[in-house]
Q: What sequence folds into this?
């Protein structure tokens, strides 16, 4: 269906924008809460699928895993604002921090190894 991964990533961005737009306008238009929550499913599914497809390239795997965690945090926060008097923020923070840890591990451990290997080749 998509010519390359970039087109699929662009679809993912569009889904994410729809989800977050529903969230942003839900104060004025309460009926947008349900579409916002429903948009979590395709947004997270596409992110997980992109992560699975990118698993052979370590950099992409780590960054896409962080994106999945970010979307999970974002969705948790949104649901908390919609239905739980904004009490899910600590759970959302866990996902945000986990995403930072994943990216941090990549840049602290794997990126330097990649750079060293590139230097050895030259």
A:
């Amino acid at each position: 269906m998509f010519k390359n991964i970039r087109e699929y990533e662009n679809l993912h961005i569009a889904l994410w924008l729809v989800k977050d737009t529903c969230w942003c306008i839900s104060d004025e238009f309460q009926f947008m809460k349900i579409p916002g929550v429903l948009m979590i499913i395709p947004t997270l599914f596409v992110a997980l699928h992109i992560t699975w497809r990118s698993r052979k390239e370590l950099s992409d795997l780590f960054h896409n895993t962080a994106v999945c965690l970010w979307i999970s945090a974002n969705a948790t926060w949104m649901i908390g604002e919609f239905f739980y008097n904004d009490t899910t923020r600590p759970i959302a923070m866990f996902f945000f921090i986990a995403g930072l840890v994943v990216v941090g591990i990549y840049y602290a451990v794997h990126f330097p190894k990649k750079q060293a290997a590139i230097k050895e080749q030259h």
User: Anything to note?
Assistant: Residues 5-121 form one domain.
